[in-house]
């Protein structure tokens, strides 16, 4: 699964493709006479550049101011990235001036989160443009996938900043929403332009997003790390990693806490850094920081190595801040470790693991066990937050089992459990080849807030089985899709959706790159 954050394109690529878009636009705009012909080349170029966007007025107004007399596609591309970053940076500064609002603890937490998240957004935008130089036209599809992923992440960070103001008692949310309005529109506009690039060159045979180098290893891994993995291929590779540091709560390792081990990771680490966490219960809040890249964390097994916490929404924390563990640094890998949040339903939102690392290796074939909530509450298995129709991302559950936790088994006739509800307008969730137990309500899907997102979401069920897999009584919303086995094979497998075949095998994690044979019984769980 990918957070949504690797970029790769080139200045040559941007010039060539934007030029192609501009040529099409100019051909459609008529000759050089009349009102349009009197427009300067710069204005014409800006209009052509902004033509495919949803917020043309914002795009044209901001680019006209930022680009001056510039008319070349490369200059306009540089300008739109720069002005978007500047808008977000201004919002960061404005959030710091809202000191009078910090008497409200939840508002204070939300403002701090905004500062952090918006810095990530600026970083992703700047990195995306800085990386415009490493690829050639023959790698366009890879560059497009990466660019769209990174831009989607920048957009998500801005939205998550605003989400943090839920249930605050001040007007900070409206002030931040106003501060971020232009930057969100511009980020969506960049996505639109990139989407147009892809459509313009869609007929050409380019490769897809490639996370590996010519030797078949992850491009973000050092030469030494590549040699070690190449020397020990296969499922046993992860077990043979030599740890850089060993954590043991009983004092038998190098350090006693995971936090101490992470503090030893060199900033912007290029080589794989392996932390071995011995069996035991670690009562700490773990953060794999943005600078802690290429960290592999190996435990002694599920239920043996446990990281536990109980932070929750009722502590006046934002949902983001309740996580027992957060993984932010790119290239993160974890195996054989249980991460839990023991807050319980009475304390409302409580997160165990929050992963926003790109190329974070995660497990397929999950056992999903809804638990007994409080009275008058329901269970929702997923709530995906895709915010823009061009954005990358989504949730795909494949070859999993949905069955009640023992504490719910006696109450399944009273407690409703749903597959998903649309947290954001373009929420995208696909259940494919799962064992769905009777615990799932026949309606299957639940509204979030009235009709919100029901026409624009993307929900689908394909080739599932079990007593809860009958779709005859499912909700009949416009956004619910009818996909074939072949549709999923092309778009929503591990290989098609995140190009997992390119980087997961080298970590020794068992996974299914494609689909199982149709209607196959006897899944993993």
TrEMBL record:
Signal peptide interval: 1-20
Cell compartment(s), UniProt: Secreted, Cell wall
EC number: 3.1.1.11
Catalyzed reactions: [(1->4)-alpha-D-galacturonosyl methyl ester](n) + n H2O = [(1->4)-alpha-D-galacturonosyl](n) + n methanol + n H(+)
Family: In the N-terminal section; belongs to the PMEI family.
Cited function: Acts in the modification of cell walls via demethylesterification of cell wall pectin.
An annotated GO BP: cell wall modification
Protein species of origin: Leersia perrieri
Keyword Cytoplasm included in the entry's annotation: no
Keyword Lipoprotein: no
Pfam family, one: Pectinesterase
Keyword annotations: Aspartyl esterase, Cell wall, Cell wall biogenesis/degradation, Hydrolase, Secreted, Signal
Pathway recorded for this protein: Glycan metabolism; pectin degradation; 2-dehydro-3-deoxy-D-gluconate from pectin: step 1/5
UniProt domain Pectinesterase inhibitor: residue ranges: 41-193
Entry protein name: Pectinesterase
Enzyme class, first EC level, given as a word: hydrolase
A GO MF term: enzyme inhibitor activity
Domain of life: Eukaryota
């Amino acid at each position: 699964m990918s957070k949504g954050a690797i970029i790769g394109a080139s200045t040559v690529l941007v010039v060539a493709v934007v030029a192609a878009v501009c040529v099409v636009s100019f051909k459609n705009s008529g000759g050089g006479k009349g009102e349009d012909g009197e427009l300067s080349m710069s204005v014409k170029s800006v209009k052509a550049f902004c033509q495919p966007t949803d917020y043309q007025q914002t795009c044209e107004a901001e680019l006209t101011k930022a680009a001056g007399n510039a008319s070349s596609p490369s200059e306009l591309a540089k300008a739109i990235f720069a002005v978007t970053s500047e808008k977000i940076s201004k919002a960061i500064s404005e959030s710091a001036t809202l000191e009078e609002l910090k008497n409200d603890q939840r508002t204070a937490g939300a403002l701090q989160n905004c500062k952090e998240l918006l810095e990530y957004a600026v970083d992703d935008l700047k990195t995306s443009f800085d990386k415009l130089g490493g690829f050639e036209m023959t790698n366009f599809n890879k560059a497009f996938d990466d660019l769209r992923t990174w831009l989607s992440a920048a957009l998500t960070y801005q939205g998550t900043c605003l989400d943090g103001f839920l249930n605050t008692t001040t007007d900070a949310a409206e002030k931040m929403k106003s501060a971020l309005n232009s930057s969100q529109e511009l980020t969506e506009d960049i996505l639109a332009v990139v989407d147009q690039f892809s459509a313009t060159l869609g007929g050409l045979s380019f490769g897809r997003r490639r996370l590996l180098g010519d030797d078949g290893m992850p491009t973000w891994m050092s030469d030494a790390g590549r040699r070690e993995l190449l020397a020990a291929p296969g499922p046993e590779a992860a077990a043979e990693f030599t740890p850089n540091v060993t954590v043991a709560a009983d004092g038998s390792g190098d350090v006693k806490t995971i936090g101490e081990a992470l503090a030893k990771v060199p900033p912007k680490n290029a080589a794989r850094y392996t932390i071995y966490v011995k069996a035991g219960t670690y009562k700490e809040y773990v953060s794999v920081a943005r600078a802690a890249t290429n960290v592999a964390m190996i435990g002694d097994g599920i239920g043996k190595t446990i990281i536990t916490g109980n932070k929750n929404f009722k502590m006046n924390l934002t949902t983001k801040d309740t996580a027992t563990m957060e993984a932010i640094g790119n290239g993160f890998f974890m195996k054989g470790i249980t991460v839990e949040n023991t807050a319980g339903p009475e304390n409302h939102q409580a997160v165990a693991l929050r992963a926003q690392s790109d190329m974070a290796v995660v497990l397929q074939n999950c056992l999903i066990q809804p638990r007994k909530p409080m009275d008058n509450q329901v269970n929702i298995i997923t709530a995906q937050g895709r915010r823009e129709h061009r954005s990358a991302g989504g949730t795909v559950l494949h070859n999993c089992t949905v069955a009640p936790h023992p504490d719910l088994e006696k109450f399944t006739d009273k407690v409703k459990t749903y597959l998903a509800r649309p947290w954001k307008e373009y929420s995208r969730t696909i259940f494919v080849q799962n064992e769905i137990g009777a615990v799932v309500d026949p309606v299957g899907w639940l509204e979030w807030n009235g009709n919100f997102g029901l026409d624009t979401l993307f929900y689908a069920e394909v080739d599932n089985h079990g007593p809860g897999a009958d779709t005859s009584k499912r909700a009949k919303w416009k956004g619910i899709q009818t996909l074939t086995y072949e549709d999923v094979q092309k778009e929503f497998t591990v290989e098609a959706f995140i190009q997992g075949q390119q980087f997961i095998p080298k970590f020794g994690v068992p996974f299914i790159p494609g689909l199982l044979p149709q209607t196959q019984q006897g899944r993993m769980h």
